[in-house]
Amino acid sequence: MMTRRSITLVGMLACGANPALAAQAICHQPSAVCADSRRLMADGQRESFQRAVVHNGKWLTAASVAALIMFAEREHNQSQRAWNSLLGICRSAKDACALAPNGTYMRSDAEQLYQRSRAYDRRANHWLLGAQASLLATTALFIIDLHPGEGPGNIPFAPLQVGLRLRF
């Protein structure tokens, strides 16, 4: 439980949930706060910082997508092992997987394997939902990081426009 609280607190701090301090203020006019000798961040510096956060954040969220998918795969493999063990029990005898009137398996080991398989599947689904949310954040950050009118610096030639005209 403490881990969830720690992760939540770190996430809130990373997302900027903490209020700005007086020294972090942008001063457009002279005032008592801006008159001291502290070097305040200019608008251009703030934009540069925000641009760097977005640019590097998109790679962090992309890496988190891959990590969450790996966790989901691990849980799915555990579920598959439990399910295959259940199938082994069911194939061992004709009535090995008989169901009780309430829908559970008569054999306790078969029911336990079934419940374990379902639990692992639920956890895998939660990891995948997290991966999807992270993928949405990654997509948003990639779109935010686009710079209209600026092409990438590693393309040496201007784009060619190729067309085809057909006459009838």
Q: What is the element layout, followed by pairings?
A:
Elements: H1 2-14, H2 43-92, H3 108-144
Helix pairs in contact: 2-3
Description:
The longest helix has 50 residues, at 43-92. Mean pLDDT is 78; it is low at 16-25. The chain is built from three helices and no strands. The protein has 168 residues and is mainly alpha-helical. The protein has a domain at 44-144. Helix 2 (43-92) runs antiparallel to helix 3. It starts with a helix and ends in a 24-residue tail after the last helix. The protein has helices spanning 2-14, 43-92, 108-144.
Short description:
The chain is mainly alpha-helical and 168 residues long.
Note the main attributes of this structure.
3 helices, mainly alpha, single chain
- Mean pLDDT over all positions: 78
Question: What's the gyration radius in Å?
Answer: 28 Å
Mind describing the biggest β-sheet? none
Which secondary-structure class do the elements indicate?
mainly alpha
Characterize the overall form. elongated
Assembly type: single chain
N-to-C span: 73 Å
